[in-house]
Structures are given as structure tokens and as C-alpha cells.
């Protein structure tokens, strides 16, 4: 009897599995939505391929940290320019505004005001009214919201109302109280101006340490989730601290925030801040993707590996000294090819005293600007002079959390020509900021069919 029941149940399950299906019982796979790669805004596709990484000729400086080695990298997108002041300000302003909105919502909750009350109530948490929630949103709100140190984790901010920055238009005393906490104290103000307390501009994010998880499979998921909180405002004092006995106050005062420098590369950013920017850029793009019904999420923006950076800087040229290909820093018309220090003490010989706009000089063959000079660039690599001897030959990458010396590439406006060479390596500490170091980001190309060889066919 039991055997008959089992046979009947098996037949029934088979019939149910085949009903309503158009696969005719064949193995057709699970088909998702049709997908096409989307070129990220402001980026260029760098086709994957092999190249000779390191010094192609004699190491005249005698550093011996970049022996020639053939490696292969996968295809990726890279920013065509260094991240500019304007682009980084978008990050800073987003962090500032998010903190303000959170403070406004918390105070509105504490005083019991809602959107119907006006004033600060307009900035109350969106979930203060549960009537318009979906079933899932209501379930998450009732079971998970507030599980954290502040009790406000998971609450939804109201982004439908614009923040008010003109003090004459503050809606009530509660709003003024919150804005007051975001500025420096009155006793630290001068010339009738109160400035933002930029030390409060902190970006919090969580990421998974994939390397750690892969190397120790006994760890639980929670053990490889890393939480970071980073102050995002660039250190403008680097313009003064990096050059003793030098008058650089105008750059300190104006370079980051003034519109005159919007299209210039951001500097004064640490390696950790550059990493945080990548996390925010991914979050920001995917927040938009979620608002588009059916849109796929994008993969992460990140700093390039050292191999990716050098491969992109070469622009497809093998054994080149500079991104433009030859051994000379001047064109056949006598014009400098990059922004650097060509003559001892003469920073203006190349017609640029400090940095220049991010889209200056001619791009290389991958349409990337200033891969040599202007500002040095952080990459996602720890500096080890012997790393080329042991890193993999496919997508080589070395980033040791215990080694805080992080690689910078490309040379800058204050460097001599040697550091502009595509193979030259330098480093700075991860928590250090300099007025000559910036960065650009990359994003993996989804798929492997785009290679340099295929592109040339």
C-alpha cells in the first residue's frame, strides 16, 4: 500500500512540474531578463589582454622594484579623467545632507511631529505613517527596524522635501537647532561666517572581505563583514603642510570648494577616503537602479589594481616609457606632453604651476587623460618592492591589510619625469593625504569576450 502511494505521489509531482511550462521537458536553463552591458558615465572601456608589466629598459634610478613580467588582465571600465573636485563634492554633499536629514528625522520623532504638523515634521521618517506601506515593508519595519545602537537603524528618510540652507528660511526652532549642530561653534567663526564642521561628515559602509572568506572557509559570514566609518572631507591643509616655507594659502582656501577649480582633480584624499568614495558611488548608482522597475544592479566601482592601472596607462603600447609611447616628454613642436616639474625649481615650464583641469593634454590610445602627471593616483595595492616576483600572472593583485604602504602611480605636478613613466612605482601611507595625490575608479566589465586582440580584428 505504501509503495502504491509513493508511485502515485511521484506521478502527481511529475505532472505538476510539467504543467504550465513551455520548455517541453527539456533542459533549457533558467533565463533571466535580457541584459546588455551599459557603459558607465564618464568611463572608457579598457579591453582585456596581456602586456609586459614593469621596466622595459634599464632601471636608471636603481630602485629594482619593477622587473619586467608578462601578465594578463581582464576587461574593465576606467574613469577617463581623475576624479574631480566637482565629482568629489557630490559625495561630500550627499554625506552631509544624509546626516542632516537623519538628525532632522530623529528630532521630529522625539518631539512627536509628523509631516502634517509642518516645520521639522516635514522631515520626519517616511515610515512614521505605516498606512501606505507594502506588506513586505510593514513586515521589515515591525521585525527589523531599530535593531542597532541608536534605535533608528533601517528607518526611511524623507528625500521628497528639499533641505533649507538659508537661515532666513528656517521653518522652526527645531530645524535651527539641528543645523546649528552641523556648524562650527560661534566662538570659532570669524568675518561673520559660520562654516560647516566637516569632522562630522562621516560615511559609514559595510563590505565583505572576500579574500579573507576564501582563505578561511571555517569563518561565518558575519566574521568577514567589515564596517567602516570614514571622514570624507579632503584635507585642504596639505597645500601648506606638504611645502614648508611656501605661500600656498590661496590653494588651501579655494581649491576644493570654489567653482573655479571644479574640473580640477581632487587632492588631499587618503587611500581610505578613495575607497569610501568607490563604495558610495556603487550605492548611489544602485539606489537609482532600484527606482527603475526591472533594472539590474551594477557591479561595484573600485580602485584599480596596480596591473590594471599600468595596463590602462600604456594604452595598448608595449614597452612604452610614457603613455604617449616614446622616451621624450615634449612633442615634435616642443610642447610638454604632461603636467610635471621639467626643470629644477621651474614648476611653470610646462605652463602649469600646480594642477591643471582633468581633461588637459592629449589622452592616450584608450582615451584616458593625464595617466602621467597632474596628480599621482591611488591604486588598490600595498607596496612591496619584491611583489612582482610572486604575484600571479593573471589579474595580479596584492593588497595586504597589514601593509599600510599603498601604491601611487603616474607622478604629479611636483614630480620629475622619472615618476611619470608608466612603470615607475611609489607609495604613501593609507591614512595620509597629499596635495599631489588623487585617484580614479574602475568597474569590471561583465563578461570576458572583450580583449585587445578581438578589438583589433
TrEMBL record:
TM stretches of this protein: none
Q: Does the keyword Lipoprotein apply?
A: yes
Q: Which GO terms describe its molecular function?
A: formylglycine-generating oxidase activity
Q: Which domain of life, per UniProt? A: Bacteria
Q: Please provide the record's keywords in A-Z order.
A: Lipoprotein
The record's annotation in SUPFAM superfamilies points to: C-type lectin-like (SSF56436)
Mention any Pfam family matching this sequence. Answer: FGE-sulfatase
Q: Domain named Sulfatase-modifying factor enzyme-like: which ranges?
A: 43-442
Q: What is this protein's name?
A: Gliding motility lipoprotein GldK
This protein's species is Yeosuana aromativorans
Amino acid at each position: 500500500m505504501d509503495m502504491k502511494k509513493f508511485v502515485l505521489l511521484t506521478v502527481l509531482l511529475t505532472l505538476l512540474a510539467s504543467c504550465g511550462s513551455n520548455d517541453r521537458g527539456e533542459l533549457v536553463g533558467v533565463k533571466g531578463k535580457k541584459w546588455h552591458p551599459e557603459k558607465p558615465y564618464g568611463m572608457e572601456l579598457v579591453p582585456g589582454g596581456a602586456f609586459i608589466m614593469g621596466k622595459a629598459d634599464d632601471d636608471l634610478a636603481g630602485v629594482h622594484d619593477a622587473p619586467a613580467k608578462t601578465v594578463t588582465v581582464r576587461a574593465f571600465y576606467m574613469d577617463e579623467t581623475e576624479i574631480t573636485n566637482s565629482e568629489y563634492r557630490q559625495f561630500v554633499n550627499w554625506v552631509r545632507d544624509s546626516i542632516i536629514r537623519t538628525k532632522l528625522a530623529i528630532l521630529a520623532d522625539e518631539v512627536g511631529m509628523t509631516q502634517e504638523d509642518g516645520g521639522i515634521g516635514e522631515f520626519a521618517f517616511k515610515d512614521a505613517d505605516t498606512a501606505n506601506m507594502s506588506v513586505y515593508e510593514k513586515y521589515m519595519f515591525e521585525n527589523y527596524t531599530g535593531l542597532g545602537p541608536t534605535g533608528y537603524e533601517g528607518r526611511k528618510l524623507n528625500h521628497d522635501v528639499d533641505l533649507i540652507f538659508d537661515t532666513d528660511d528656517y521653518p522652526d526652532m527645531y530645524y535651527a537647532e539641528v543645523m546649528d549642530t552641523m556648524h562650527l561653534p560661534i566662538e570659532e567663526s570669524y568675518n561673520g561666517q559660520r562654516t560647516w564642521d566637516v569632522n562630522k561628515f562621516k560615511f559609514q559602509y559595510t563590505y565583505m572581505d572576500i579574500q579573507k572568506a576564501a582563505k578561511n572557509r571555517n569563518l561565518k559570514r558575519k566574521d568577514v563583514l567589515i564596517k567602516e566609518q570614514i571622514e570624507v572631507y579632503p584635507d585642504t591643509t596639505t597645500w601648506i603642510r606638504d611645502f614648508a616655507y611656501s605661500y600656498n594659502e590661496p590653494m588651501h582656501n579655494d581649491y576644493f570648494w570654489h567653482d573655479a577649480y571644479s574640473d580640477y582633480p581632487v587632492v588631499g584624499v587618503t587611500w581610505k577616503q578613495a575607497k569610501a568614495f568607490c563604495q558610495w558611488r556603487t550605492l548611489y548608482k544602485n539606489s537609482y537602479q532600484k527606482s527603475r522597475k526591472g533594472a539590474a544592479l551594477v557591479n561595484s566601482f573600485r580602485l584599480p589594481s596596480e596591473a590594471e592601472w599600468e595596463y590602462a596607462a600604456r594604452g595598448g603600447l608595449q614597452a612604452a616609457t610614457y603613455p604617449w609611447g616614446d622616451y621624450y616628454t615634449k612633442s615634435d613642436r616642443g610642447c610638454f606632453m604632461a603636467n610635471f616639474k621639467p626643470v629644477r625649481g621651474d614648476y611653470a615650464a610646462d605652463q602649469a604651476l600646480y594642477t591643471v583641469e582633468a581633461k588637459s593634454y592629449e589622452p592616450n590610445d584608450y582615451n584616458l587623460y593625464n595617466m602621467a602627471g597632474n596628480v599621482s593616483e591611488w591604486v588598490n595595492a600595498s607596496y612591496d618592492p619584491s611583489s612582482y616576483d610572486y604575484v600571479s600572472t593573471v589579474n595580479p593583485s596584492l593588497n595586504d591589510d597589514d601593509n599600510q604602504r599603498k601604491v601611487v602611480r603616474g607622478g604629479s605636478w611636483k614630480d620629475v619625469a622619472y615618476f611619470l613613466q608608466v612603470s615607475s612605482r611609489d607609495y604613501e601611507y593609507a591614512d595620509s593625504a597629499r596635495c599631489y595625490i588623487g585617484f580614479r575608479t574602475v568597474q569590471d566589465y561583465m563578461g570576458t569576450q572583450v580583449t585587445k586582440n578581438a578589438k583589433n580584428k
